[in-house]
């Protein structure tokens, strides 16, 4: 297969070329530079695949690091140049269009893995050399009587020519012999080094078992040991080594000498520390990142009895506006300044600040008295954000919303703590922002329940968990049932029956309101047909209509008119049997494009009702341009009529609305009628129909049929 010009394969080969040119001068291979590039190409492809894999696996980096050793790239400079090349060019040539921040993080982790793989392979190779040296030494000692001169020659060749440092000492620790590699590692002369005693080489970073193992070896209780050890050089710098010490016995098996083999790991250790820092710190702000923060939070959660923690979860208010208006470069400078200010707020022992990503930061405090300390920490953070931040000559005001979680260690997992802080932060943001809120278990539970309902909505519709109840619409003049409003319910497997106020806003937010609304419309229209068929033999019963609510999202859906027409045609129901209710707030300031579908439905004969009238503060003059035939007066205007005497102001308002509606040929329906006195007063004022608990609560369709029969025959 021939790659397209400048395709992924071409970019991969260019990366391999750059890599080979950087590393080839410090390799010990007999291959040409072109042949060496051919060896590196599959390694470059392995790194590219690991960088772009759906699930990141650092094993690829370790394999590539080990493969470098197999390719004779054993000089530490070869590893350093390789990591520099990967850091500078891997994402550039092999990253594609992915998330650059994520790719850079992956690239850093690959470098860390490559260094680890390189170190492990080099250590294994070194240990093999060490084993050969030890065997040579033992062999030289064991065959002294037979071939002393030949053995000494072989041992001297290995001893002097080895790339690792070798030293021999007696059991008292007096150094007897050292090779050139060891002298170069310490930067001293042979005489200086041989004047030292092994026991003088202590270091503050020595592992606790270091000298215990040494004592056991010189006593003959162990044959060898291996560990990482630091040494001071004469100039005060530190030499880090992989140290292997072996015991040499005489012909009778008694301990005689100790042989030390040292591999210089100083550069590798510094590289690992740098890679560790890059993997645990945010590249933009220098703060600890999400990985480091979770390590600290897990440690805080596992603290002993009596220990507590406090967590502040900060999200900047309106940060997206800065990025959108001034650009991401300005947004980055703002984040750097915010990070510096936050860092100055957490200087006490047990406190830290980290950046989780974007404009989200966390501050953690630990200790026995975090109930007071976390409030003080949140206050310091809010105060730190008061002063404007200068970006590109503009003074930007920065505000933040903070969610605070505080409690004893060990009771919750880090994920649960962070989730609670996140929920609390959004509660502070929804309350206006520029404030902090304390975590509330009940509020957390409600938020988690809302999330659970949101994720369960799609499958609930597929599983048929929704059902419809119907509330009668009664004519105030003669008390007859004229129809019903369809009200959808959700029979949730865990939470039982949920009213529309619990899930309709979630359905609006997710867009599921469109298929759910279509289902409600079809079920309700089919029910209207069944009522009409049942009432066909009862002459006193007029045709029963069905009222169905339309959400703002449904109003803007392009399939509204066609879906309605299809449902009416499939069920064989006339358009005048259907009334679609639209809230007044959804039509405030509506343009002709939004009103066009409603006008088409009204022209077909479908009634349009303006629901919750009086709550949207709309201009009454707009009624002339709206394609509505019914006003549904909000219950807030009629609540005072439940008692006698009614509020005269409310009476005048309702009387005026009814008069206005009738002058425009609009019928008036009243919601929330709960008493007979209220119903009578509304009848006197001229309202046409009403619904409410005074007549009946929402119920199954059979109850409406029974009520209609009672009205007709009673």
Describe it.
By secondary structure, this protein is α/β, with parallel strands linked by helices. The chain has four domains: 8-132; 162-270, PAS domain (Beta-Lactamase), CATH 3.30.450; 280-439, Reverse transcriptase/Diguanylate cyclase domain (Alpha-Beta Plaits, 2-Layer Sandwich); 478-703, EAL domain (TIM Barrel, Alpha-Beta Barrel). It is 51% helix and 19% strand. The strands form four sheets. The chain has an eight-stranded mixed barrel, surrounded by four helices. It has a five-stranded antiparallel sheet with strand order 2-1-5-4-3, with helices on both faces. The chain has a five-stranded mixed sheet with strand order 7-8-6-11-12, sandwiched between helices. Strand 19, helix 23 (648-663) and strand 20 form a beta-alpha-beta unit. The longest helix has 43 residues, at 100-142.
Total domains, how many?
A: 4
Radius of gyration: 40 Å
Assess the beta-strand content as a share of residues. Answer: 15-25%
What is the overall shape? elongated
Major β-sheet profile: 8 strands, mixed, barrel
Number of helices: 25
What's the SSE blueprint?
Blueprint (H helix, E strand, L loop, with lengths): L7 H16 L9 H20 L6 H12 L5 H19 L5 H43 L1 H18 L3 E6 L4 E4 L1 H7 L3 H5 L15 H9 L5 E9 L5 E12 L5 E10 L1 H15 L9 H12 L6 E9 L2 H8 L1 H18 L5 E7 L2 E8 L2 H15 L4 E3 L2 E3 L3 E9 L5 H17 L4 E4 L2 H22 L3 E10 L5 E12 L3 E3 L1 H11 L2 H23 L9 E6 L1 H4 L4 H12 L6 E6 H4 L4 H13 L2 E7 L16 E4 L14 H16 L3 E4 L5 H10 L3 E2 L10 H13 L1
Parallel strand pairs: 11-12, 14-16, 16-17, 17-18, 18-19, 19-20, 20-21
Antiparallel strand pairs: 1-2, 1-5, 3-4, 4-5, 6-8, 6-11, 7-8, 9-10, 13-14, 13-21, 14-15
């Amino acid at each position: 297969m021939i790659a397209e010009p400048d395709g992924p394969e071409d970019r991969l080969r260019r990366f391999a070329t750059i890599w080979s040119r950087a590393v080839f001068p410090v390799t010990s291979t007999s291959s040409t530079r072109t042949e060496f590039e051919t060896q590196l190409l599959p390694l470059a492809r392995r790194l590219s695949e690991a960088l772009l894999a759906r699930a990141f696996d650092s094993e690829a980096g370790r394999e590539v690091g080990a493969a470098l050793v197999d390719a004779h790239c054993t000089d530490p400079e070869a590893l350093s140049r390789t990591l520099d090349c990967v850091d500078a060019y891997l994402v550039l040539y092999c990253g594609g269009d992915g998330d650059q921040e994520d790719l850079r993080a992956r690239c850093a982790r690959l470098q860390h893995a490559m260094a680890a793989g390189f170190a492990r392979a080099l250590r294994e190779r070194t240990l093999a050399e060490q084993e050969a040296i030890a065997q040579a030494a033992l062999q030289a000692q064991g065959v002294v009587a037979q071939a002393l001169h030949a053995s000494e020659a072989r041992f001297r060749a290995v001893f002097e020519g080895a790339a690792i440092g070798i030293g021999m000492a007696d059991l008292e620790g007096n150094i007897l012999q050292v090779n050139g590699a060891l002298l170069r590692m310490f930067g001293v002369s042979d005489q200086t080094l041989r004047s030292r005693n092994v026991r003088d080489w202590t270091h503050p970073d020595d592992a606790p078992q270091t000298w215990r193992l040494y004592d056991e070896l010189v006593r003959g209780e162990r044959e060898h040991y291996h560990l990482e050890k630091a040494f001071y050089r004469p100039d005060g710098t530190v030499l880090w080594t992989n140290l292997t010490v072996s015991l040499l016995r005489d012909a009778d098996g008694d301990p005689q000498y100790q042989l030390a083999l040292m591999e210089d790991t100083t550069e590798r250790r510094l590289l690992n520390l740098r890679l560790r820092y890059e993997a645990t710190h945010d590249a933009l702000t220098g703060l600890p990142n999400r990985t480091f923060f979770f390590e600290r939070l897990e440690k805080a959660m596992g603290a002993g009895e009596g220990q507590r923690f406090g967590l502040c979860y900060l999200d900047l208010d309106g940060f997206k506006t800065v990025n959108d208006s001034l650009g991401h470069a300005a947004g980055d400078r703002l984040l750097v300044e915010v990070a510096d200010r936050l860092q100055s707020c957490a200087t006490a022992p047990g406190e830290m600040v980290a950046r989780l990503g974007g404009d989200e930061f966390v501050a953690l405090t630990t200790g026995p008295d975090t109930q007071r300390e976390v409030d003080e920490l949140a206050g310091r953070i809010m105060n730190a954000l008061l002063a404007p931040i200068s970006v590109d000559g503009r003074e930007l005001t920065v505000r933040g919303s903070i969610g605070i979680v505080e409690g004893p260690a060990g009771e919750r997992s880090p994920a649960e703590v962070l989730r609670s802080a996140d929920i609390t932060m959004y509660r502070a943001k929804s309350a206006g922002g520029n404030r902090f809120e304390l975590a509330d278990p009940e509020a957390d539970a409600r938020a988690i329940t809302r999330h659970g309902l949101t994720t369960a909505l799609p499958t609930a519709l597929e599983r048929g968990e929704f059902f419809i109840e119907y509330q009668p619409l009664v004519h105030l003049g003669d008390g007859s049932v004229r129809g019903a409003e369809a009200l959808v319910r959700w029979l949730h497997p865990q939470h039982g029956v949920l009213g529309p106020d619990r899930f309709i806003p979630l359905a609006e937010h997710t867009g599921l309101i469109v298929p759910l609304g279509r289902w409600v419309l079809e079920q309700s229209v089919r029910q209207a047909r069944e009522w009409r068929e049942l009432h066909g033999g009862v002459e006193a019963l007029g045709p029963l209509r069905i009222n169905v609510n339309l959400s703002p999202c449904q109003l803007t859906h392009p399939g509204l008119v066609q879906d309605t027409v299809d449902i009416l045609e499939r069920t064989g129901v006339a358009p005048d049997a259907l009334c679609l209710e639209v809230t007044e707030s959804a039509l405030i300031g509506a343009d002709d494009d939004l009103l066009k579908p409603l006008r088409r439905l009204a022209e077909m004969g479908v009634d349009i009702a303006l629901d919750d009238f009086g709550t949207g503060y709309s201009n009454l003059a707009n009624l002339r341009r709206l394609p509505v035939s019914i006003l549904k007066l909000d219950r807030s205007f009629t609540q005072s009529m439940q008692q006698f005497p009614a509020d005269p102001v409310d009476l005048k308002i309702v009387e005026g609305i009814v008069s206005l509606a009738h002058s425009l040929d609009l019928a008036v329906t009243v919601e929330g009628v709960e008493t007979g006195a209220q119903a009578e007063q509304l009848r006197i004022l001229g309202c046409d129909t009403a619904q409410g608990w005074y007549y009946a609560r929402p119920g199954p369709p059979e109850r409406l049929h029974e009520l209609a029969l009672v009205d007709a025959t009673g």
